[in-house]
Automatic annotation (TrEMBL):
Assigned protein family: Belongs to the SEC23/SEC24 family. SEC24 subfamily.
GO biological process terms on file: COPII-coated vesicle cargo loading; intracellular protein transport
InterPro entries the record matches: 4Fe4S_Fe-S-bd, ADF-H/Gelsolin-like_dom_sf, Beta-sandwich_Sec23_24, Gelsolin-like_dom, Gelsolin-like_dom_sf, Sec23/24_helical_dom, Sec23/24_helical_dom_sf, Sec23/24_trunk_dom
Highest taxon above the source species: Eukaryota
Organism: Bagarius yarrelli (Goonch)
Classification lineage: Eukaryota, Metazoa, Chordata, Craniata, Vertebrata
SUPFAM superfamilies for the chain: beta-sandwich domain of Sec23/24, C-terminal, gelsolin-like domain of Sec23/24, Helical domain of Sec23/24, vWA-like, Zn-finger domain of Sec23/24
Name used for this protein in its record: Protein transport protein Sec24C
Membrane topology according to the record: Peripheral membrane protein
PROSITE patterns, A to Z: 4FE4S_FER_2
Length: 915
């Protein structure tokens, strides 16, 4: 389907019923509002205001028609006749003219059969369907439709498509250069591979805004129901040969505002020949020190091109006067009897020995420390002056104190052989001793004490093999009526929150590797890792070759990832705005515009929401600045500054037309997943539906420039995929749990997703369906440029498909795939002999197998962890994992299909327009 222009509808062309002639002479039903179309009183059908669609999955079921009870709004009967020329009808139910542009189409289908007594031939089919939800007529709905089809007869293939939008954006920007200038246009999508150049505005790799034209008035912003927010990814890596962020020393930079503390940027305006500048973040003037004074020419300093803080939206300041301690690497290993008997301890130590061999000990100054634990803590003195390492045992684990401080952290180049010797001895510990499990928080407390004693940040890698235990706080709970019970399953226990705060203050990032199966309803150990910039990664058993390879890849990826320690992100915004909220995997700072983190990696993103204090200045626009202060790996203190300048407008149409669906999705995802700590999930799902309904109603009422009929869906060009994104978010396992989704899985999913950047969030909530185009010879050409809609109708039985999200990788095999393709991939020609489940593809040297392995390797590089490759045969019982990814269809957890959700949004927004 061709991409429709802005303000145009989507769907089928309306067709009139046979015998249609006129609306004249049709009277209003009793108790109908004057703004509603009248209907013949002789037909006996009345308006039912109590059939308003409800929020949530239940809303997608048809509501049985009851007797009209009405409310105060419908208490006065209307006897006047209605006609298409009636002045106050707003044209909402007026039958559309047959003569219109090809792009103006209406929502229509074949599964709806109107039951109308006398005037059934007077209605267009699309109008009858809307009148059903508005309570005017009753409809018989075909409930035998497939999951990929709509119960209201909409053709899913004619609805706005995420894939089509991505392809159009790729065709426009792929391989090209986008100049990021102040008050520039909407940037390319995050999925488009293009070069972004900083021309005075930070590129969209660092900052993405929900709209690039903010409303001037607060009332207009509230009316639009579009959040005014920005997504910050301050350490994002440059791509496509983009220039790295320039670095300058502290003394070389022009100082920023002396009142509010904002840093120098192109948004500052110079006055009095460069003697002072105006700060848009506080509205004050700041004098320029004579040491850094330069004259101005046409309002710009003459040295603008020589200084990145004057000409670029992104730059970094290296503080040469502050040098802290370099980051360290701490290894904490579970040595309980369970870990020893399972054989996993030996594998863990072997992998760690291999990891240490990869470091260049002759050049690196990396300091390492080693901890082992069961119900006690074992510390090791790694001093190279000792004839052999000393082990110290701490039995008091409630408030552990270090017996010594020297030798606990030693440069790897001086103690490599000592650490390897200990790792070789650890698997030989006595396994016959009685099982004694310690808390998984025990190594965190010990590692934190070591870092505090050395006054340095670092990474703490914990390898836990014994069963997870409840915290003492939860074990001593007073029961159901205890006041210390958490409000939500997502809320961390108080002990975990306190421990995470201490880690954040010290710059201790916790990475937890778990090798035991958690008990259902038991403790979940991920709160501390995710609140400190780390991760929780679980494995079934390291006895499996697949799991060993996963562990090796995750361990390598963890150590190789560049991290910023003791990070603090402060956000400044124009003085007419203020920060209303911040969302992400972090702890709030001392001020509302500040977030503090123990560590930050290049893929972590945070969301900040803004609200009006007073009217914006249209000439100055909106300035947003993010200042990240952090310590590098070597202990140097750095400050990275990102600034964007946006336009502002009195017209709401500019706000809508400069918004992007994927950025709004990322904001809503972070906000809702964070609000899940405090509010019921049902309320969050209802809020999502209400927000997008109000936004569509506002756009239809105030921004639509074309005469449209009720059957036409009116959406802004860049937001036409927002409904499918929001529906996917509403029915995600976090907000709508399924029967087979455990609490631990939902906690893990929420914690990972809430820190994702825009590209990963969009792929998580709308996965990629990548066809392997198999030809007659069994060959295949996988490509990222060819993607399909997330619907079962996209999967054909004679094809192979890769389904990818940042947390899932599935190879779907159709039942009619050629034996040649099966042989080249799996070394078997029989579909029946192929087994569904986790698999390692055999290393076969043919073109199909080689290209597929390379393609999977590319997808793995996008993910934060090493993904399991799972083969799913068409029709197998494990097909439910595929259904979860096909977000346009009805979901296994009861979530509505995209077509049904869009239809309800459309009707609900119409009701608000005429209400």
């Amino acid at each position: 389907m061709d991409s429709p222009a802005s303000d145009l509808g989507y769907g089928h062309q309306q067709q009139t019923w046979e015998g249609w002639n006129s609306w004249n002479g049709i009277t209003s039903p009793a108790y109908s509002p004057t703004a509603f179309p009248a209907y013949s009183s002789s037909s006996g059908y009345q308006l039912h205001p109590n059939c308003t669609p409800q929020n949530g999955p239940a809303a997608m079921e048809p509501t049985a028609m009851q007797g009209s009870t009405g409310n105060s709004d419908y208490s006065q009967p209307v006897t006047a006749y209605w006609s298409p020329s009636q002045p106050h009808c707003n044209g909402v139910y007026k039958p559309a003219s047959d003569a219109r542009s090809p792009a103006q189409t209406s929502l229509q289908g074949n599964h709806l059969q109107p039951v109308i007594a006398k005037h059934s031939k007077l209605f267009l089919l699309s109008h009858a369907r809307m009148f059903y939800l508005l309570g005017i007529v009753e409809l018989q709905i075909d409930k035998s439709y497939p999951k990929s089809e709509s119960r209201y007869g909409l053709d899913p293939q004619l609805l706005p498509s995420v894939v089509q939008v991505m392809n159009e954006d790729r065709a426009q920007w792929e391989g090209k250069i986008f100049d990021s200038e102040p008050k520039s246009s909407v940037p390319p999508l995050s999925s488009t591979s293009c070069t972004l150049e900083d021309k005075g505005n930070a590129t969209s790799r660092f900052i993405r805004c929900t709209s690039y034209s903010f409303p001037i008035e607060a009332q207009s912003a509230q009316q639009s129901h579009l959040p005014l927010a920005a997504i910050f990814c301050p350490l994002a890596r440059p791509q496509n040969k983009e220039k790295p962020v320039p670095v300058c020393n502290t003394g070389e930079c022009v100082k920023g505002c002396g009142v509010c503390g904002a840093f120098m940027c192109p948004a500052m305006s110079w006055q009095d020949c460069g003697q002072r500048f105006y700060c848009p973040f506080c509205g004050k003037l700041t004098e320029v020190p004579w040491q850094s004074y330069q004259p101005t020419n046409k309002g710009q300093r003459v040295d603008q091109e020589k200084k990145p803080e004057l000409s670029l939206g992104s730059y970094e300041i290296l503080d040469t006067q502050k040098q802290g301690e370099p980051a360290v690497l701490l290894l904490a290993i579970d040595v309980t009897a369970t870990a020893i008997r399972s054989g996993q301890l030996d594998i863990i130590c072997q992998q760690l020995c291999s990891l240490l061999q990869t470091f260049d000990g002759g050049e690196t100054d990396l300091r390492v420390g080693l901890i082992t634990y069961d119900s006690r803590i074992h510390l090791y003195d790694l001093s190279p002056t000792l004839s052999q390492p000393h082990m110290m045992i701490l039995t008091d684990t409630d408030e552990p104190e270090l017996p010594v401080r020297e030798g606990l952290l030693v440069s790897l180049k001086d103690c490599r052989h000592i650490v390897q010797s200990i790792l070789e001895q650890i698997p030989l510990f006595d396994a016959e001793m009685q099982d004694s499990y310690g808390s998984q928080d025990l190594p965190v407390q010990a590692g934190l004490k070591i870092l505090q004693a050395a006054d340095c940040p670092g990474r703490l890698l914990i390898f836990h093999s014994s069963p997870l235990t409840e915290s003492s706080e939860k074990q001593t709970s007073l029961g159901f009526f205890s006041s210390i019970k958490p409000k939500s399953i997502f809320q961390p226990p108080e002990s975990s929150a306190s421990l995470a705060k201490a880690c954040v203050s010290q710059g201790c990032s916790v990475q937890l590797f778990v090798f035991s199966q958690p008990d259902v309803g038991g403790a979940w150990p991920g709160h501390v890792p995710f609140l400190t910039g780390g991760k929780l990664i679980c494995y079934n058993s390291l006895q499996s070759e697949l799991e060993r390879e996963r562990f090796h890849g995750d361990l390598r990826r963890c150590v190789d990832t560049d991290m910023a320690y003791r990070a603090q992100l402060r956000v400044f915004v124009s003085k007419e705005l203020q920060v209303a909220g911040c969302y992400g995997a972090f702890l709030t700072g001392p001020e509302s515009n500040c977030a503090v983190m123990a560590a930050l990696d290049p893929h972590t993103a945070l969301a900040f929401e803004f609200t009006h204090c007073k009217s914006l200045d249209e000439t100055r626009g909106v300035a947003i600045q993010a200042v990240l202060s952090y310590s590098g790996f070597k202990g140097e203190r750095r400050t990275r500054v990102h600034t964007v300048t946006l336009a502002c407008s009195r017209s709401l149409i500019d706000t809508f037309r400069t918004s992007q669906a994927e950025t709004l999705l990322t904001f809503y995802c972070k906000k809702m997943y964070c609000m899940a700590l405090q509010r019921p999930l049902q309320c969050l799902r209802e809020e999502l539906q209400t927000e997008i309904t109000e936004a569509l109603a506002c756009y239809r009422k105030h921004c639509s420039t074309t005469s449209v009929s009720p059957g036409q869906l009116v959406m802004p060009q860049f937001l036409k995929t927002l409904p499918v994104y929001i529906n996917s978010l509403r029915k995600s396992e976090v907000l709508l749990p399924g029967l087979r989704s455990s609490v631990h899985q939902r906690l893990q999913l929420r914690s990972i997703t809430v820190s994702m950047d825009t590209r990963s969030t969009a792929a998580q909530l709308y996965p990629l369906v990548l066809p392997l185009l198999v030809n007659a010879e069994g060959d295949s050409v996988p490509s990222m440029d060819v993607t399909l809609r997330c619907s079962a109708s996209s999967l054909q039985s004679d094809h192979l498909y890769l389904l990818y999200s940042p947390l899932t990788l599935i190879l779907w095999v159709g039942s009619q795939v050629s034996p040649q393709a099966l042989t080249q991939l799996f070394n078997t020609a029989s579909f029946l002999s192929l087994t569904s489940g986790e698999i390692k593809l055999p290393v076969l040297e043919n073109s199909l197998a080689v290209r597929l392995r390379k393609f999977i390797s590319i997808l793995q590089s996008f993910a934060a962890v090493t993904l399991k490759l799972k083969v799913v045969k068409e029709g197998d019982s494990c097909d439910e994992c595929v259904q979860r990814l096909l977000v346009e269809d009805r979901s296994p957890n009861g979530g509505a299909s995209y077509a049904d959700f869009l239809f309800h949004l459309h009707v609900s927004s119409l009701r608000r327009v005429v209400g």
